[in-house]
Amino acid sequence: MQKSPPTPSATSWSSRAVPAPVRRGAWLCAGESASGAESDTGTHPALRALPPDELTIFIVEDSAAVKERLIESVEDIPFARVVGSADAVNEALEGMRALQPRVLILDIQLRGGSGFRLLKLMRAAGMNRPETIIVVTNYPSDDYRTASRECGADHFFDKASEFHKVREVLLGMR
Fold this sequence. Notes:
Layout: H1 8-11, H2 45-48, E1 55-60, H3 64-74, E2 80-86, H4 89-99, E3 103-106, E4 109-110, E5 113-114, H5 115-124, E6 132-137, H6 142-150, E7 155-158, H7 159-162, H8 164-171
Parallel strand pairs: 1-2, 1-3, 3-6, 6-7
Antiparallel strand pairs: 4-5
Helix pairs in contact: 4-5
C-alpha cells in the first residue's frame, strides 16, 4: 500500500508570498527578515576539526535504496562528506542537533511524520538553519514545492526526474 503524502497546508508556516531563503542561522517564514548575528558555538566537537570549506551533509530518507543512492552520488565529491543519516523525524532531529551539517537533504514522507514537520521542529527548537536544505520527493506537486519553500527549503527536486540535480547543487557549493 502506498503512503499518502502529508498535507502541506497543515504543516506550512505561512501562506504569504515566498521570498528567497536566508542562509545559515536564520529560520524565516515568508515575509520575515533576519535580525542579529548568528552563532556557531554549538557545533559538535567531531565537526569542529573539519576544514571550514568541508561540505558536511545529513540525509533524511526513509528508503534505504534512495539513501544509498544519495550517498553514492556525493561520495566522490572531494570536499563533501555525509556525516549522518536518519529515516524518522525524531532521529533526524537529534542527528541535526548533534552534527549541525551545512547541508540537509530531506524527503517529505518519513517515519513518524514528514520533512515539513522536521523543519518546523528544528525551527521551534532554535536550531541553526543548515546553509542549504534540499528536498527530494516522489510528490513533486506545486503545493509541496510551495510548502517546502515556506518551511525553508532552498531546492525541491523530483526523485524520478531530477535526482541528478542534488549532485549539481553540491558541486556548486564550497
